[in-house]
Amino acid sequence: MQKSFIQNILRGIILFSPLHVQMAFSDDYFDPSFIEGVSGQNQHVDLSVFNAGGQVAGAYDSAIYLNNNYVTEKKIQYDYSEGSNQLLPLLTKLEYIEYGVLPNATPNFMSINDNDVIKEINKFIPDAFTKYNFEKRRLEISIPQKYIKKVAQGTVPESQWNDGISALFANYTYSGSSTKTDGISEFHNSSYLNLRSGLNIGSWRLRNYSTYSKSNNIAKWNSIKTYIESNVKSLKSQLVIGDSYTPSDMFDSFSFLGVQLASDDAMQPSSMRGFAPIVRGVAKTNAQVTIRQNGNTILQTYVSPGPFIINDLYPTSSSGDLEVTIKETDGSTTTFIQPFSSVPIMLREGRFKYSLTAGEYRSRNASDKKPFFLQSTGIYGLPYNATAYGGLITSEKYNALLLGLGKSLNDIGSISFDATIANSQIMGKNYTGESFRFQYSKEVLSTGTSFSLAGYRYSTSKYRDFSQTNGYYDNSQLNSMGSSLNKEDAIASYQSQYNSLNKRDKLQLSINQDLGDFGSMYLTGYQQKYWNNSGKERNLNFGYNKNYNGVNYSFNYSYSKDMYYGNKNQIFSFTVQIPLDFIRSNTWLNLSNSSDKKGNNTSLVGFSGTALENNNFNYSIQEGYNKRDSDSTGNVSVGYKASFGEYQLGYNYTHNTQQVNYSAMGGVVIHPNGVTFSQPLGETFALVRAKDASNIDVKNNPGISTDYWGNAIVPYVSPYQRNNISLDTTNLSSRIDLASNIKTVVPTRGAIVMAEYHTIIGYKMFVTLVGENIPFGAEAKINNNGVASTGIVDDNQKVYLSGAPTKGIIHISWGDNQCNAPYEFKESQEEIISFSVQCN
Description:
Immunoglobulin-like, 24-stranded antiparallel beta barrel, 8 helices, five-stranded mixed sheet, Ubiquitin-like (UB roll)
């Protein structure tokens, strides 16, 4: 009975092990005498397959990690080591060097040839080891830090950047409404289409942005911009030819038709983007250096004796003290604090960022001038936590030069200051003026206070920016004015109108405050003054948020004032969102009230929520009342997010109007494997390809699943970074298996990158082997279009295999023995095919 019980357990484990995963017990040893000695029987058993985590030597797909950092993915040959009871990768010295090991790591490592295979890496590099996790298909390579090449954290080699496939796509947003107003017999219908389309060929991307609008049978089509774009890897830059916009970090951005070459921060390692200080110190021994910010460890590394430099930090915020701890080999520690903060324009020491633009100025107004211009900008990270920057614009009747400096003041915060001098020629008159800008940023982590940006700009009365110079009265307008005014009066009229719109000074502020258990609050403000105009533009927003036992409270205040008439508007609003999980999960009761100084007071009550397995269906219903007008209002809407698009339908009403509105968003991609519809597309996206595996969900992407042909679109992936795309195999057909359900892609900007999964189409078989005395634990293997399916023979000479073709040969091996079992069966609808076959 004991023997039968043990055999049943083992047989059950074997039968229900998934494809390629057989009894993956990494530390267990199966003693043959445990089975052979039961009831006095001496049954021959071969359990060698359970060594090394249940796997035998062979070639396996492997995701390679060096010191927990992903390197690449490839098929690797493994050998079994009896001494360590595990599989060891057979990698060459050159492969280790490619993965990041120093060529001169140790004398032993240097002594072997590049193509020599290394089975036990610890024989060449002290304290190094490898470990293969078969279930996760993950090879861990551990090498002491001092034997590793120094590269910035988050570095993805250019050799892994993928320009993607050639494909044509269109991304659309369509919306429309039909409105009925009391007293008017006809409906007012309107619709709008936003279309972003493109063509990818290699590293080149052709893009077009167009819109279509229609209101009461009056239609308008507008092609806004068309351009060609490509990455220039050697310069870590993007090249744009056609319609685009100039950078906005120094001068105000404007539209142009021409050519632009500009640095692309996304091409930098993620740890080198933005600003972080260089940490310098001195170690007495081979020391461990740990850097913390706000209690979080952001870097831990090892350094050699003597001075060291760390220049690839991942700060957890844009400012705040860094705590640096140096732990020597004798256990002694040295700790010091390095404060830092930054404004958005700052760069790390030694980094350079630039832009070069040449073309024709473009404006939405047909009457505006369209001069040819050149613009260049440059930013350089200096020592001592400083950044220098500058830029210039030149054209026939406009020249401007900007110079600036940003500096971290440690505990005080971070500031930048720049000055611009500009000369513009308008209607034959020269205007020379200056503009000065000051920015300040600071985070006080101990109090949770963040001055995201405090800025002030002052411009003299004769300062003009490039758009102002070319965006008002041109010669044709001056000539037309001449019909009623002489030239001097026309110029005076222009100057009077222009000066009233000429900016004088601008102040802006943004503060965020974390109150811990008491919630959080924010404050943003803006004020703009103009020359020869006493009016001011003002805007102020204040908000407070608090969550208590799942109930979310929010208070908001908004104040605005226009420049011309001094009209003021103030709005107070208060909202409460209460979860109704006791009735249905993902359902909320929403209460809100808003009022303004004009006496409008509107109260709303409603329900909202999500439904379906992936929460890709949403709904909302609200009823409201305006106290001032005794006016009732209400709305109801439903939305659905599918793999082929997002759709919304709504209805709302007031006391004298009724409206139905609708929208659809999505994309369509024409690629070498067919046509695939998708959710709204981002700038860079991925095509999932799992041939014939339909209705398979893409993990972490609600509503996205493969279509009938096994294709799906993941609409957003990050350029120049590793993106892991996983498929949920729980819904796989009984006739389909995947060799792997995880793929890693590294797209370039704008790429349509392929994530292809090898599908194995075949049957599940339960086979009884006859003709040979095959021991328990022997390995069975069958080949299906180059992919091997394996299984373990039980004590009754039965084996379970999946992904099998209707005709093939089962290869059985145990110890130094083997036999082959040819088979063939007819196609069937049965879940598992059972039969006996001769093994010779």
